[in-house]
Write a structure and sequence with these properties.
single chain; 101 residues; seven-stranded mixed beta sheet
């Protein structure tokens, strides 16, 4: 399974890649020492209740995000622009843990 997470805000882009076959995680091309299986499992639990997209057309600048999961030959994509699922705080907490390891 491969997971790609792209976050865009006024400060720029952050790209996180998880590959459970290679047991690797990179943030903006830099290797991170994280438990890939644990991170992937937590992420899958978080996004399991998400809709495909969350968009607030009334806000022009802000945060956009895309989570793309390639699992068993299928691609699942979740996208948002200034609108968030109820458990988005769990997602951002996980991202912060990965980025700060």
């Amino acid at each position: 399974m491969q997971i790609s997470i792209i976050l865009t805000n006024l400060r720029g882009n952050t790209k996180i890649l998880l590959d459970d076959e290679k047991k690797s995680c990179t943030v903006n091309g830099e290797e991170k020492n994280v438990n890939v299986d644990k991170v992937a499992s937590r992420l899958l639990r978080i996004v399991s209740s998400w809709e495909d997209s969350y968009i607030n057309p009334l806000i022009i600048d802000g945060l956009t995000y895309e989570v793309k999961i390639i699992k068993d030959g299928k691609t699942y994509t979740y996208y948002g622009s200034n609108e968030f699922p109820k458990n988005f705080h769990q997602f951002t907490a996980l991202i912060n843990e990965v980025m700060n390891d």
